[in-house]
Amino acid sequence: MAGRKSDFTLPTNTLDELFSSQEERDEAKLSKIRDIPLEEIDDFPDHPFKVREDEDMFQLVESIKERGVITPATVRQKEDGRYELISGHRRKKACELAGFETLRCEVVDLDRDEATILMVESNFQRSQILPSEKAHAYKMRLDAMKRQAGRPRKENGVPVGHDYLTGKSRELLAAETTDSNTQIQRYVRLTNLVPELLEFVDEGRIKMRPAVELSYLNEDCQRDLVDEIDLNDCTPSHDQAIRMRKFFEEGKLTTEAISAIMSEEKPNQREKIVLRGDRVRSLIPKNIPINQTEEYVCKALEHYNKFLRNRAERDSR
Length: 317
Description:
With 317 residues, the chain is of the alpha/beta class. The protein has helices at residues 12-18, 22-30, 55-67, 89-98, 112-123, 131-150, 162-176, 181-189, 195-203, 208-214, 219-232, 238-249, 255-262, 277-282, 293-315; strands at residues 33-37, 41-42, 73-77, 83-87, 102-107. The protein starts with 11 loop residues before the first helix and ends with a helix.
C-alpha cells in the first residue's frame, strides 16, 4: 500500500478560496468592477427586451443623477477589446439621458451561451414583460441551453438528440419560472409570427391561443391576414385561427379563404345592449320576481312600440 498516489485533488480556484480571507475575496470581486465609457459598450445581440423612455425610465434617470448607478451593470469583454452588455440596458440608457459618459459595470468571464442565459434571467426580474419579449427571450435561452447540453462528451463523442434536448430544456426552464412546459412552448411559437401580428398580441388584440395557431401559417398567409385585420378592424377568434391553420395545412388557405373567414360575424363582435340593473328594477313592480324580469321588460317594450305606432298613425291623418 505504500507509495500509493491519491486521486483526490482540489482545483486551483478552490485552494485559493480555502487559503484566502473574505476581505481578499471581496477585493478580487471589486477588481472586476469598473467605470467603462458608454461608447465602448455594445448592446447584447438581438436583445429581446425593449428599453422604453417611460415614467419609470425618467425616475431612474433622476435617481442616477442623484446617487449614481447603485447596482453595477454586467458586461463581458469581447475579442476586439470592446464590452458586451449582458444586464443593465435600462441603466445604460438612463446614464446616456443623464449625460454621463461612463457606466459602472462588473466584468464577467462568460461565453456567448452562458451570457445569453444570464441576460434572460436578469431581465425576467422586470415588473412588466410583453409577450413578444418573453417569446424571444425563452427561445434564446432554450437555444443556448440546447447547445450547452448537446455538445459531445469526451467519453462518448455523440451529441444528444435534438428532440430530447428541446423537451428536456423546456422542463428545466419551467422548473425555474412561473410558466409551465406547455406555456413556454406556446411563447416560443410566437416567434414565428410576422412583426405586425406579434404586435397585436402585445396589445392584447390577439390572445395567446389563436396566436399560436396563426404561427403555423407561412409569411404570405400571415401578411394576407394582417391586410384583412386592417381592412375590417377585427382580429380572428380561436375558432377562426384553427380553421385557417387547417386550411393552410391542406393547401387551401387562399387570400379569398382568409377574407371569407374574417368577414364572419363573431359572437363577441355583435352589438350588445347594456341595461343598468338598479334603474330597470326601479321601474318594475315589486311583485315581479327577478327571474321574470326579462319577460316583463320585453312585454313592456312591445306595448310601448304599439303605442308609438298608434300615435304615428294618428299624427299622419
